[in-house]
Amino acid sequence: MISPKKSALTYTCFGCRVSLLAKKKKIRKFRATAAVKSVAREVLGTPPAVRREESGKREKKPKHKATLGKLLVEPDAS
């Protein structure tokens, strides 16, 4: 087995070369909405976490029919 060779600039292993230097940071495209939101966060602070309320419209239906044993134990259950 061939041992990998290390140098300051590259790492060579089995014919592949990978640079150890950090990549240059990618400059992000200016977006107006991101700028407006960041200014608003500085002025107003972060918004509170959302608290969702459960609606009464939809009720969870039973996933399975009641078994004979449950029907005999609890006669008023549907």
Mean pLDDT: 77
Q: What structural category characterises the helix and strand content?
A: alpha+beta
Oligomer: single chain
Contiguous runs where pLDDT drops below 50 for at least 5 residues:
none
Radius of gyration: 31 Å
Q: Tell me the series of helices and strands, N- to C-terminal.
A: EEEHH
Largest sheet: 3 strands, antiparallel
Strand line-up in the sheet with most strands: 1-2-3
Tell me the span between the first and last alpha carbons. 72 Å
Looking at this protein, list some descriptive labels.
78 residues, alpha+beta, 3-stranded antiparallel sheet, 13% strand, elongated
Short recap of the structure:
By secondary structure, the protein is of the alpha+beta class. Helix content is 24%, strand content 13%.
Provide an overview of this structure:
The chain is of the alpha+beta class. It contains 2 helices and 3 strands. A 3-stranded antiparallel sheet has the order 1-2-3, with no helix packed on it. The longest helix has 13 residues, at 32-44. The chain is elongated. The termini are far apart. The model has no long low-confidence stretch (mean pLDDT 77).
